[in-house]
Design goal:
Blueprint (H helix, E strand, L loop, with lengths): L1 H10 L2 E3 L7 E6 L13 E2 L15 H8 L3 E4 L7 E4 L7 E5 L2 E2 L20 E8 L12 E7 L5 E11 L3 E11 L3 E12 L30 E15 L2 E15 L7 E16 L4 E15 L18 E20 L2 E22 L1 E27 L2 E15 L12 H6 L7 E16 L5 E11 L3 H5 L1 E2 L7 E3 L7 E14 L2 E22 L6 E22 L4 E14 L16 E9 L3 E10 L17 E12 L3 E8 L29 E9 L1
Parallel strand pairs: 2-8, 6-9, 24-27
Antiparallel strand pairs: 1-2, 2-3, 4-5, 6-7, 8-9, 10-11, 10-33, 11-12, 12-13, 13-14, 14-15, 15-16, 16-17, 17-18, 18-19, 19-20, 20-21, 21-22, 22-25, 23-24, 25-26, 26-27, 27-28, 28-29, 29-30, 30-31, 31-32, 32-33
Length: 690
């Protein structure tokens, strides 16, 4: 029994949902997998299913960061936490929603991709670390696929509610109706909170200073107010065909970001996904469209008092929008005893952002992101073959990508920025990139459960619209922000190795990696050609990132288990315009230890999370060391029959005042406000299934 329990623990990883009957599973997938999902091996559990039913349920980014030591979150405010995996962030990670690309509209990533699906809507999160994904363009260091729930047969639904410290409320419902032909799932949630307090008893709105400080009247302003609604239909006319259609809408209002100099008035998102699958042909056709509109202003900050047009209520504003649509055709088949999957996919990403600054002088920065289109079409093939105890898998992908910015979209203030910093005729606002990605992995199986692998992957990522084309003129001596149209795509050549081993009632999963980066896109400071002004921009550098992670899980008894995990990574620059060779935003050692009790009815957990001091910082970007921290979280819950669940939890039990390493913006022209983690947070979750 204990061996089976450990195998189960290490075979499935779970991440969140307050639901006595349903859980959000998280699978962290090893690089060495067979093509067919039902034959895939190397999946690893990092948590039990009961563990996450009683989290605070605020956002997926924070949940993943708490579960996996190699994943860290960027704390910008009370929600919308972006993620960093193995020291890679931003577009170096592909984040998909139901397999579809989606991009936030904010140039400062107030609305990262992972923020655009409610925790209540999610059924599963799949994480593949390293450059081993050929099915999607640009998965430089990892791919994260957030998968929504499917409707089921029958009539029923769920009511759920979470309440906690700092007036945090999260409630909603979903309703399911279906038979063997048509199934429908609809749901709605509301999330609301006031600013949380840190361990020293200060609201997070009290930390920004000077002109970015919040007005005294706004320090108790709503921290976030979010509505999510969704509808999913599954049509199965026979046992061979399945059609899925999914629509989702979310609106985040009054979202405060003390990490930055402005806050989100609103962020509205529409998502449509479609999928058609023919089982007998192993053929899948998918299509998607999504649209994000984002408005950020400084109307709640002291800086708004400096506006040249006070009747508007703000001194800085950015109105941004992005849309993405694409399609994919993929087919599985066999050539002899080799499992193969091949496909073709394409997408269009459009991004436009207009900015205005009304301080000291009026800066018309229309076209801050100058109506940029990125169009990609790619083909891929991957296969796997078993030879005795060894599984060999490999993949290959070719992409053709076009990037185009509209100079006509630029406002009067930023019209000449590219000429000012690069010289007329020394750049192009249209680029075409053609490139190949691929990988090969070998896994040796000791037995049905234990194995070891080694793999090599090569992946390429095209510069995003901000990196190549952002144009933001700043007043007076404040540095401008200008993209680098001459950037080359990033290339990652990475070697990964690991072992997954089981003995008795214990299991171990360990991985090491070394990533050699060519033309890595990195922040830099440049001067105008006439030396009249500075600007923040981007450069291509060579660099490397390396690290390790491990997880050990064991059963102490039939009801008590112990889990220990840790991860560490280090990044160094090898070329470029720098004085400090340390790379920025590389998190330090982080470890997690959890003791859990689960008898099928009652669940309890004591969890400790430790992060080491980070002193390997990039002084070129004004980084400074972050202290170590150690926090304790306590959780418990009970299934009350087959329909109801009640859970309580206390995060940061000892009310520590601490910061994660990624708690402040590092580019050299921001205020550097550090946003602390929440102090003691008490909450209760209630779920009823009808």
């Amino acid at each position: 029994m204990r061996k089976l329990l450990v195998a189960g623990l290490l075979a499935t990883s779970v991440a969140s949902v307050v639901n006595a009957q349903e859980v959000l599973r998280v699978e962290k997938i090893s690089v060495a997998t067979d093509v067919k999902e039902e034959e895939a091996k190397g999946k690893v559990a990092e948590a039990t299913q009961e563990e996450i039913k009683i989290t605070r349920q605020i956002d997926i980014g924070e949940i993943l960061s708490n579960l996996f030591p190699e994943i860290n979150h960027i704390r910008k405010g009370g929600t919308a936490n972006d993620i960093v995996i193995r020291g890679f962030g931003r577009d170096n990670i592909n984040v998909l929603l139901d397999g579809a690309r989606i991009y936030g509209a904010c140039p400062n990533r107030m609305d990262p991709a992972i923020f655009h699906m409610s925790t209540r809507q999610v059924a599963e999160v799949k994480i593949l670390e390293g450059p081993f994904d050929v099915e999607n363009q640009g998965s430089l260091a990892a791919v994260v696929n957030v998968i929504s729930k499917d409707p089921t047969e029958g009539v029923g639904g769920n009511l759920y509610f979470t309440g906690g410290s700092f007036n945090y409320l999260h409630g909603g419902f979903d309703v399911n109706v279906g038979n063997d032909t048509v199934k429908v799932l609809a749901g709605y949630t509301k999330q609301y909170s006031k600013p949380y307090e840190s361990g020293e008893g200060k609201k997070f709105t009290e930390y920004p200073q000077d002109k970015s400080a919040y007005k005294e009247s706004e320090k108790d302003h709503t921290a976030f107010n979010i509505d999510n609604a969704w509808l999913k239909v599954v049509y199965t006319p026979d046992t061979d065909q399945t059609l899925k259609l999914n629509y989702a809408f979310d609106e985040a209002k009054d979202v405060l970001y003390p990490y930055l100099m402005m806050d989100a008035i609103y962020d509205r998102t529409h998502r449509i996904n479609g999928e058609y699958y023919i089982k007998s042909l192993d053929l899948k056709i998918t299509g998607y469209w999504n649209f994000v509109r984002h408005d950020m202003q400084d109307r709640w900050r002291m800086s708004s008092n400096m506006s040249l047009e006070p009747e508007l209520g703000y001194a800085m504003r950015t109105l941004a929008k992005t849309k993405t649509y694409g399609a994919k055709i993929e087919k599985g088949f066999k050539i002899g005893d080799v499992n193969v999957k091949a496909g073709i996919d394409g997408y269009l990403r459009n991004w436009k952002a207009d900015n205005v600054i009304l301080m000291m002088m009026k800066m018309d920065n229309r076209g801050m992101i100058p109506d940029v289109d990125i169009t990609d079409i790619g083909v891929f093939v991957k296969g796997s073959k078993k030879i005795n105890n060894i599984v060999i898998s490999a993949g290959l992908r070719y992409d053709h990508t076009e990037s185009d910015a509209s100079k006509g979209a630029l406002g009067t203030s930023n019209q000449g920025l590219y000429d000012k910093y690069y010289g007329a005729g020394n750049y192009s606002l249209s680029e075409t990139d053609n490139y190949v990605s691929g990988n090969i992995v070998a896994r040796y199986k000791f037995d049905n459960r234990s194995s070891a692998y080694i793999g090599f992957g090569h992946t390429v990522r095209v510069p995003d619209p901000e990196e190549r084309y952002i144009a933001l003129a700043k007043p007076m001596t404040n540095p401008d922000w200008v993209g680098n149209p001459n950037l080359d795509p990033v290339q990652n050549n990475e070697v990964d190795a690991g072992v997954e081993y089981y003995w008795g009632v214990f299991g171990l999963k360990a991985n090491v990696f070394y990533s050699d980066l060519t033309d890595y896109i990195y922040l830099t400071k440049i001067k105008a050609l006439d030396n009249s002004k500075d600007a923040m921009s981007y450069q291509n550098i060579d660099a490397h990132i390396y690290g390790w992670d491990f997880t050990v899980i064991g059963m102490v008894s039939d009801t008590v288990s112990v889990e220990l995990g840790a991860a560490c990574q280090r990044g160094k620059k090898d070329s470029g315009n720098y004085e400090d060779s340390d790379m920025a935003e590389i998190p330090p050692l982080k470890a997690r230890l959890a003791v859990k009790y689960d008898d099928g009815v009652k669940f309890g957990q004591i969890e400790t999370i430790y992060s080491a001091r980070q002193h390997n910082v990039d002084s070129d970007l004004n980084e400074y060391p972050t202290k170590s921290y150690y926090v304790v979280n306590v959780k418990g819950g009970v299934n009350m029959g087959d329909r109801a669940f009640v859970g309580i939890g206390v995060d940061n039990l000892f009310d520590k005042n601490y910061y994660t390493y990624l708690s402040y913006s590092r580019n050299p022209f921001h205020t550097g406000t550090k946003v602390p983690e929440p102090g003691r947070f008490i909450y209760m979750n209630v779920n009823y299934k009808f």
